[in-house]
Amino acid sequence: MKENRGAKLKWTSEAIEAAIKAVPFHKRETTRALAFHANIPRTTILRHMKRSRRLRCKSSYLRPLLTDASKEERVKFALSFVKRNQVFDDMHNVVHVDEKWFYLTRVKGKFYVYDDEVLPDRQAKSKRFITKIMFLCAVARPRFDVWRNRMFDGRIGMWPFVVKEPAQRTKVFLPMS
Predict the structure, then answer these.
(1) What pLDDT, in 10s, does the model give residues 70-113?
(2) Residue 122 near residue 111, CB atoms below 8 Å
(3) Is residue 133 part of a domain?
(4) Residue among 17, 24, 16, 2 at smallest CA distance from 115
(5) What is the pLDDT of residue 24?
(6) If you average pLDDT over residues 107-132, what whole number do you get?
(7) 38: exposed, middle or buried (C-beta count within 10 Å: 0-12, 13-18, 19+)?
(8) Are 58 and 110 in contact (CB under 8 A)?
(9) Cα separation of the two ends of the chain
(10) Are 44 and 11 in contact (CB under 8 A)?
(11) Nearest in space to 58 (alpha carbons), one of 130, 16, 121
């Protein structure tokens, strides 16, 4: 008698699972995106997650793809700061100049997957290959500046590497120049 109450379900659990598994992982980052690409209402997916407890949100981290040569270079770089008497260099007079990248792909991604599905291992040769824009940064050790009689915080500067060019194509908010 209990089965005959309420509105009939339009989506069976198997049909929802098949539709969700047909959607690629990079389009399953939010329930809204998952619902859009699977052509299933978002509330139906949320109800299915509550009932079945098999569809969950899992995190996937981008890991560096290190070769043996790059591991060896990292060890050599660390050993270059060790003095002959087996003491590390204090690095008081060192200015670190480095570039700062802002990425198109997030390092941590969340995806909705079933228990029997395995998340693909996201790897990249380096995080530098998924760049959006680059900044040059220069920092040093914080210290007291005797000439100005105040504390120097160590931040020297940050400069963008940007080339301003006219637009090659017309976009929604940017007309072609």
Answers:
(1) 989 989 988 888 888 888 877 778 888 988 766 666 777 777 78
(2) no
(3) yes
(4) 17
(5) 92
(6) 74
(7) buried
(8) yes
(9) 70
(10) yes
(11) 121
Number of domains present in the structure of the chain: 1
What is the mean pLDDT of the segment spanning 141-168? 84
Note whether residue 24 is domain-resident. yes
Instruction: Dump pLDDT digits (tens) for 18-68.
Output: 999 999 988 988 999 999 999 999 999 999 999 888 888 888 887 878 889
Please name the residue ranges forming H helices in the chain.
Answer: 13-21, 31-38, 42-52, 68-79
Widest Cα–Cα separation across the chain = 88
How many other C-beta atoms lie within 10 A of the C-beta of residue 47? Answer: 14
Residue 109 included in any domain: yes
**CB of 128 closer than 8 Å to CB of 171:** no
Q: Which residue has the tokens 């389009």?
A: 27
Sign of CA dihedral 24, 30, 36, 38: positive
**For 143-156, how does the pLDDT look when each residue is reduced to its tens digit (9 = 90+)?**
888 888 999 888 89
Is 107:117 a contact under the CB 8 Å cutoff?
Answer: no
30 in any annotated domain? yes
Tell me which residue range forms the domain holding 130: 10-66+93-161
